[in-house]
Amino acid sequence: MKHLLEHDWEIIPAGGATGKAFFASKNNEKLFLKRNSSPFLAVLSAEGIVPKLIWTKRMENGDVITAQECLNGREFKPGEMTQDGVAELLKKIHESSPLLSMLGRIGKAPYKPEMMLEEVTSALDEELASHHSVHEALEFLKSELLNVNCETFTVCHGDVNHNNWLLSENGEIYLIDWDGAAIADPAMDIGPLLYWYIPRTEWNHWLEIYGLEYTDHLQIRLKWYVIAHTLLAIGWHKNQQRYQEMEFWIEFLETILHEN
């Protein structure tokens, strides 16, 4: 990685499960480097959704390295997810024709609810699937599958956790880590964001900023997708032997299932 840059650059791993990301710094200049990012990154940069793409270089072994502007800023705190700028940026993403076109060109097919249900089922071992709350949630996903149809699929991020939202020192908002991007029902993003971060009394305001009316059909879609996300989280944490986190998501699942 270091030979891509001039001398005197300090390069350190940026963390993450893949080990493909690095920070490079020299004097007051900082770059975020990543190995084999999707071509999608260039369009995200052009749309102002991620920090600016500086350059792309192909290595002799075929790897492609991208360098992005490394901004002075920080991750969002959970309580900051209520601000209007989050709804506005997500709306911009979901309505972006260039993003949708690029995902189609790189071979992304629509990610339909039945595909997500299949992924959820595969993520749960026999012990989890027999847990009373997990079983109840699976039955809900199956029974409501035909009721979550959506006419317009959009580009969805797939993981709207507050750690993926960045606030620059100039107040600009970015959404990063697009490895899980999909063409899907926008409720796949909106559902988790609302359930995780937005008080129920503020849902109508949030949806008004985004540009949606809170209908019975939308409510079912939001609940369906947040339950699906939650079951995936439960299965993942158990597979990683992170049992405390698994129990947290099981408790969260129970609050959704028994909401009024």
Automatic annotation (TrEMBL):
Could you tell me which InterPro entries the record lists for this protein?
A: Aminoglycoside_PTrfase, CcrZ_PhaseVar_Mediator, Kinase-like_dom_sf
A GO term, aspect molecular function? transferase activity
Which part of the chain is the Aminoglycoside phosphotransferase domain? 14-216
Q: Quote the protein name from its UniProt record.
A: Phosphotransferase
Q: Which species does the entry assign this protein to?
A: Siminovitchia acidinfaciens
